[in-house]
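tool_call: predict_structure(chain=1)
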Amino acid sequence: MAETNYVKKLAALYGAFFKVGLFTFGGGYAMLPMLQKECVEKHGWTDDEELLDVFALAQCTPGIIAVNTATFLGKKQAGFLGAVFATLGVITPSLVIISLIAALLKNFADIPAVRHALAGVRVAVTGLILASVFKMGRNALKHWLSWVIALVAFLLVALFGTSPVYIVLGAALAGYLFFGGLWTGGKEGDA
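tool_result:
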């Protein structure tokens, strides 16, 4: 019975991350709405706060954000095989689609309808990212220092092109110092 449940969980991981990989256009940030829907709302594998933590960690580690996120969440749910199935799920659609596009791109890249369709997809992806920022920001921005860290991070990236690695490391240090109690007189701060 336990083995059957484990196999079902592996299949669920593959299926959920296959959907994420299939419907994520525009890079790692665009997958946040799908991750939130599949992993938080549908399956209950994590909550919004932990999803943000995993996503930040996935961004700081070498490799593709989508693959790293799938690997971390799959491992948490079903160990090594969970990581493998979630990772395979998220990359399978890309492998198939990119193979098809590479074979057909020469024939269709210059067609105005294709160019216009891709322009529409880019605009929609921007909206999806903004929706994710709004939805997940409500859970992350609960303290005035959270707002300060978010604003500084935005300005450093938008105005100065600072690497996200430095931003995440700096935010981790600020969070540790403030929320860890070092600036609050030994009391744990509320993130």
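agent: Residues 71 and 118 are 29 Å apart (CA to CA). Proceeding to next step.
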